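Project outcomes to date are best conveyed with an example. Our students and postdoctoral researchers have been running inverse folding experiments weekly, and each run begins with a structure described purely in tokens. The record below, which covers 166 residues, was selected by the lab manager from last quarter's runs and is presented without edits.
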């Protein structure tokens, strides 16, 4: 899902490890550590896919990490992943607007998988790259930043939300 807006954007230099401070869970919580590891791994795999396709890497976007994590958590327990609210509006675009986060182009990928083994991030990235619409977001040259949020339910189902923008 891509959304175009007429706002300008500001670029920040920030290291992905700083995302740990944005996590709402208790420090030292093993589930929180696993989610942060998945988020970092997904960013690394996304940038590896971009490099393999001669596309510049994405910067971690600390401004949108809360939006990505809210989007991931909102999909837990839902029968189907969806980009839209009950009124047919694009949820992540509304969350960006509510947070006063500017962009000219933004996109979102959602995915879900079981965490029964340590390869969950690799499996999710491979699935996203084999889907034409998700691959388009991953390889979109106009995107320069991404925040990848994750959430897990009680049945070991992990949901990730990738929020891209320029």
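After processing, the design step wrote out the following sequence:
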């Amino acid at each position: 899902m891509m959304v175009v807006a007429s706002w300008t954007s500001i670029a920040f230099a920030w290291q992905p490890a700083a995302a740990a401070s944005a996590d709402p869970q208790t420090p030292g919580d093993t589930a929180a550590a696993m989610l942060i590891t998945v988020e970092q791994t997904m960013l690394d795999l996304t940038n590896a896919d971009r490099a393999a396709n001669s596309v510049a890497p994405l910067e971690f976007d600390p401004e949108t990490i809360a939006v990505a994590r809210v989007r991931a958590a909102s999909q837990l327990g839902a029968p189907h992943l969806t980009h839209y609210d009950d009124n047919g509006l694009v949820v992540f675009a509304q969350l960006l607007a509510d947070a006063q986060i500017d962009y000219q182009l933004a996109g979102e990928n959602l995915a879900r998988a079981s965490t029964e083994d340590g390869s969950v991030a690799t499996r999710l990235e491979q699935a996203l790259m084999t889907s034409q619409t998700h691959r388009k977001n991953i390889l979109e040259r106009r995107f320069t930043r991404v925040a990848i949020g994750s959430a897990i339910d009680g049945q070991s189902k992990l949901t990730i939300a990738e929020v891209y923008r320029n």
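The first strand starts at residue 2 and ends at 4. The chain is about 35% helix and 20% strand. The training component of this project remains on track.
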